[in-house]
Write a structure and sequence with these properties.
- The complex is a heterodimer of chains A (about 110) and B (about 110).
- Chain A contains no helices and twelve strands.
- In chain A, the strands form three sheets. In chain A, strands 2, 5, 6, 10, 11 and 12 form a six-stranded mixed sheet that branches. In chain A, strands 3-9-8-7 form a four-stranded antiparallel sheet, with no helix packed on it.
- Chain B has about 110 residues and is an all-beta fold.
- In chain B, β7 and β8 form a beta hairpin.
- The chains are: A mainly beta (about 110), B mainly beta (about 110).
């Protein structure tokens, strides 16, 4: 079975400071991992994905994530937060031919002026 | 490229009533998914279609939920009768192969 645990339900940062959203995964096999962002009243948007290539993955809007197999982690980072980054972020794991996504419970990011 | 379309965007019904949601996936996407997202939780897969066939409906409460994808394009999800705990956002996603593209969702409130 596969699962992801997002370690913080809420994260608050000041604009211009670094962002760290934490995610640990559990998977019997080599997983594919994703981060999605959900702005209010909008659909989920893919930020980045790891599919067993480079362990440091760069995504849109300056976000990146590092796959660490030894720590079973896939934390999302951004060097400098912007007000428009305020949203809900989901860590997602998938495996198998059906490509079904298993979502974490989400982390609400607040960016303070 | 047009995205995944869903309607209605909002729906309020009384418990024990019926409701239906519609999804139009991105043209050419063979795989279509329906998810339920309860407030404060991540989306949970309800059903997955490949063209017009069901791949997985193991988490669909079949006593009250049904879904179809006639002709392998549009899809409808129906709840009959609705319960209070069905209040959630219902998300549709489509995929050409690996990446899933999500629609804006339908927010259902059951009173």
């Amino acid at each position: 079975a596969q699962s992801v645990t997002q370690l913080d339900s809420h994260v608050s940062v000041s604009e211009g400071t670094p962002v760290l959203l934490r995610c640990n995964y559990s998977s019997s096999y080599s997983p594919s991992l994703f981060w999605y962002v959900q702005h209010p009243n909008k659909g989920l948007q893919l930020l980045l994905k790891y599919t067993s290539a480079a362990t440091l993955v760069k995504g849109i809007n300056g976000f990146e994530a590092e796959f660490k197999k030894s720590e079973t982690s896939f934390h999302l980072t951004k060097p400098s937060a912007h007000m428009s980054d305020a949203a809900e972020y989901f860590c997602v794991v998938t495996m198998g031919s059906a490509r079904q996504l298993t979502f974490g419970s989400g982390t609400q990011l607040t960016v303070l002026p | 490229e047009a995205g995944v379309a869903q309607s209605p965007r909002y729906k309020i019904i009384e418990k024990r009533q019926s409701v239906a949601f519609w999804c139009n996936p991105i043209s050419g996407h063979a795989t279509l998914y329906w998810y339920q997202q309860i407030l404060g939780q991540g989306p949970k897969l309800l059903i997955q279609f490949q063209n017009n066939g069901v791949v997985d409906d193991s988490q669909l409460p079949k006593d009250r939920f049904s879904a179809e994808r006639l002709k392998g394009v549009d899809s409808t999800l129906k709840i009959q009768p609705a319960k209070l705990e069905d209040s959630a956002v219902y998300l549709c996603a489509s995929s050409p192969r690996y990446e899933q593209f999500f629609g804006p969702g339908t927010r259902l409130t059951v009173l």
